[in-house]
Design brief:
- By secondary structure, the protein is of the alpha+beta class.
- Helix content is 25%, strand content 39%.
- The protein contains 2 helices and 4 strands; from the N terminus they run βαββαβ.
- The longest helix has 11 residues.
- The relative contact order is 0.32.
């Protein structure tokens, strides 16, 4: 299992629409509107790091309203 936190910036006024589009995807386990350096923080899971990177680099960035992303891979998690 590969996991990452993705910090997402959205165009003004599109934050909730971006969050809702994220939550429609089965790989997105949570997507929260936040204050600070990003508009949304999403927890993403996939079967492999290759799939996770494809998702974050090639798919999430194409969602209407997404202006930028920063992906933080989770390398060890206390379960």
């Amino acid at each position: 299992m590969a996991r990452a936190y993705v910090k997402i910036n959205a165009a003004a006024g599109k934050e909730k629409a971006v969050r809702d589009a994220l939550l429609d995807r089965p790989e997105i386990k949570s997507a929260d509107l936040t204050s600070g350096d990003q508009d949304i923080i999403a927890l993403v899971e996939s079967d492999s790091f290759d799939e996770l990177l494809d998702l974050t680099l090639n798919q999430l960035r194409t969602i209407d309203g997404v202006t930028s992303t920063v992906t933080n891979l989770i390398i060890d998690k206390d379960d």
